[in-house]
Design brief:
The complex is a heterodimer. Chain A has helices at about 5-15, 20-30, 35-45, 70-80, 105-120, 135-145, 170-180, 180-190, 205-215, 225-235, 245-260, 280-285, 325-335, 340-350, 375-380, 460-470, 520-525; strands spanning about 55-60, 65, 85, 95, 100, 285-295, 300-305, 310-315, 385-390, 395, 400-405, 405-415, 415-425, 425-430, 430-435, 445, 480-490, 495-500, 505-510, 515-520, 530-535. By secondary structure, chain A is an alpha+beta fold. In chain A, a hairpin with a 4-residue loop joins strand 4 and strand 5. The relative contact order of chain B is 0.10. Classes of the chains: A alpha+beta, B mainly alpha.
């Protein structure tokens, strides 16, 4: 397919230029004005048989419209010797003499501009355009004729990772990241341009890119990620050392370093609310909305925090948290009803550790004391409005008094990849234990009920809800499970393994350098510590 | 028989009027864009692309014509459109007509 048209088109262009095509295109193919649309609605039909359907052609040499299916345009071309016509359904140019559609670069450019202008007038965002190789890419393809076909049974993208001494926590996170479809696409399409100009060898993002290259090289022997480990150690000192670390901590630290390095040598850390548009932010950053409603004046104070994961409490309601609460509960009881004391007790209880983002710490009025047995249970509890009792009064900015209030957490912005962290490890003063209760999780997850737009608010925010749900696509919050990190053993001596999904329905278990096939059933009945979900809208087949 | 003919003519007229309104308001283009998006999302476009490749390979690159492809791919394409996509488009058209009739 060449973009030089044909000899007949060339002579037509020489005689009339591109004007005839341009006029026809702007009135019948990509209309940018209401007047043009009226003309199109009225005049778009075959002059011979009055057919108004698809594939009506407009002659480029005279004012004649003929349909293709009944050969009326062909007859016209033959009798009048007007070889060239435009298909009004698609804007493609047909040459009767050549008997086929011909493509000309100049006309293609005109068509593209028109389409863009027309789409703009109708408020349509035309982001999708099929990829066309440029000259450089064509050269590259020609010089490298070897092609690797990815078949159904192919194991491309799978590779074991050597354990460098209790580094199974890191290996599981690396496996999960390398099997994150959108992250894989980013790195394999070479989209990372290193900003660490001062010391490019220290760039974790580049090293991540190299990891993807290794995984997709087709090499079957396990890979030794020593450089990656070293880079994470030097950038996240608290993780250095050969002891077993927490996989979740490693994930957050790794994302933070990647996020910083995306911005270059002086990258700002995650905790600064700077708006970064790096790939990590694009993929992992969600928005957690916290609404505190004053019981007195119904004023709602809203904050939205960026988050990379959702940490969910397990175990029964208020009792599951730190021993400090148990110690502090005496204070709570004595402070109830005493207006002079609320703020003295307040900080110890309402001090939310932002790292864990759990609403269940310290609120004594948690209605249910049930233990969640499913991810949905956890999420329901996470987004349930919590009544902040008498002991945890917050100063309302509207009525300027300390009042009891209700607090609710919901997801304002759903990230492309949602990571759920089941808080199985209890680190209270004096004791560490692991909650090994089985928590079921689904293969497909719909986050719509936990979104801010679904918030059931008795305080009259109905306008906002209606507007938000009208603009939000109903399928925008559906997720698919693609990686599960499991911890087996006790808190003192444990081992991390993970399941990852490569092709659709094809699960694999990764245990350091050993990769074995697994079934979805196996995955879903595993304990589950870190659950990785990917938005469905971006991934198919 | 005459009734059936009359019905057919009326249907055709109705279809023409609706189409005209759709084009004039630009709704037709918006619907096309929606349909395009949905068909890409559900993998229909990729499926058809694969089918086209097969047809080209079987007929041979030198002998294939657009008419061949259109004739073979049209019924396949129509059959492969998922029901939920059809439902959604129909709903949109209904909504549009309701708006138009109330104007």
């Amino acid at each position: 397919m060449s973009l030089h048209g044909c000899e007949h088109l060339t002579s037509l262009k020489a005689a009339y230029g591109i004007q005839p095509f341009y006029i026809i295109h702007s009135y019948f193919i990509a209309c940018s004005s209401i007047e043009a649309r009226r003309v199109k609605a009225k005049s778009c039909f075959c002059h011979t048989c009055r057919y108004r359907g698809l594939r009506v052609h407009a002659c480029l040499s005279c004012v004649y419209f003929g349909c293709y299916n009944e050969q009326h345009i062909h007859n016209h071309a033959k009798t009048k010797k007007h070889n060239l016509s435009v298909d009004l359904s698609y804007g493609t140019v047909y040459c009767y003499a050549c008997g086929t559609f011909v493509y000309d670069e100049e006309l293609e450019n005109v068509a593209r501009k028109q389409q863009r202008a027309a789409a703009a007038t109708l408020g349509i965002k035309r982001d999708f355009a099929p990829w066309e190789p440029g000259q450089d890419e064509i050269e590259l393809l020609r010089r490298n004729p070897k092609r690797r076909k990815v078949s159904e049974n192919s194991h491309i993208g799978l590779r074991g990772l050597i354990n460098l001494g209790n580094t199974c926590f890191m290996n599981c996170i690396l496996q999960s990241l390398t099997h994150t479809p959108i992250l894989r696409d980013y790195f394999l399409s070479d989209q990372h341009h290193c900003h660490m100009t001062a010391n490019p060898q220290q760039c974790l993002v580049c090293e991540m890119g190299r990891l993807f290259q290794e995984f997709y090289s087709g090499v079957r022997t396990p890979y030794i990620p020593y450089k990656l480990l070293h880079l994470v150690w030097t950038n996240a000192r608290h993780l250095a050392g050969y002891e077993q670390q927490d996989a979740h901590e490693f994930l957050i630290a790794a994302l933070d370093v990647l996020h910083r390095h995306c911005q270059g040598t002086n990258g700002l850390s995650y905790s600064s609310s700077h708006h970064c548009n790096c790939i990590i932010d694009q993929i992992f950053t969600g928005g957690l909305q916290s609404d505190v409603t004053c019981k007195q004046c119904n004023n709602v104070s809203t904050t939205i925090d960026p988050i990379w994961d959702i940490s969910l409490d397990l175990g029964p309601g208020p009792g599951s948290t730190t021993a400090a609460i148990a110690a502090g509960s005496n204070l709570v009881l004595s402070a109830v009803g005493d207006p002079a004391l609320p703020m003295a007790v307040g900080p110890a209880l309402v001090d939310l550790p932002t790292a864990s983002l759990s609403p269940a710490s310290g609120f004594t009025n948690s209605p249910s004391n049930y233990e969640p047995t499913s991810l949905l249970d956890c999420l329901k509890r996470f987004t349930r409005p919590e009544h902040l009792g008498n002991s945890a009064k917050i100063k309302c900015s509207n009525c300027s008094s300390y009042q009891e209030s209700t607090k609710q957490l919901t997801m304002k912005k759903s990230p492309i990849v949602a990571c759920f962290h089941l808080k199985r490890f209890e680190h209270s003063t004096g004791y560490h234990k692991k909650i090994s209760t089985y928590v079921s999780f689904p293969e497909e997850l719909d986050m719509t009920p936990f979104m801010s737009s679904s918030r059931n608010n008795s305080n009259g925010y109905t306008n906002q809800i209606v507007r938000e749900s009208a603009t939000g696509l109903s399928c925008d919050n559906k997720y698919s499970l693609f990686a599960v990190v499991n911890h087996s053993g006790t808190i003192e001596s444990g081992h991390y393994t993970c399941y990852i999904r490569s092709h659709k329905e094809q699960w694999f278990k990764c245990e350091d350098h050993v990769i074995t096939r697994a079934t979805a059933g196996e995955v879903l009945s595993s304990e589950g510590y870190l659950l990785f979900y990917h938005k469905q809208l971006l991934e198919y087949a | 028989m005459a009734d059936l003919q009359e019905r057919k003519i009326k249907d055709a007229q109705m279809r023409a009027t609706i189409n005209q309104k759709l084009v004039e308001t630009g709704e037709r283009e918006r619907l096309k864009e929606l349909l395009r998006t949905r068909l890409i999302e559900c993998g229909w476009r990729d499926q058809l692309k694969a089918q086209c490749k097969e047809i080209v390979q079987s007929k041979g690159l030198e002998h294939i014509t657009v008419d061949d492809l259109v004739a073979e791919i049209t019924p396949k394409g129509r059959a492969l459109v998922p029901d939920n996509v059809k439902k959604e488009l129909l709903q949109r058209i209904r909504t549009f007509l309701a708006q138009q009739s109330s104007m």
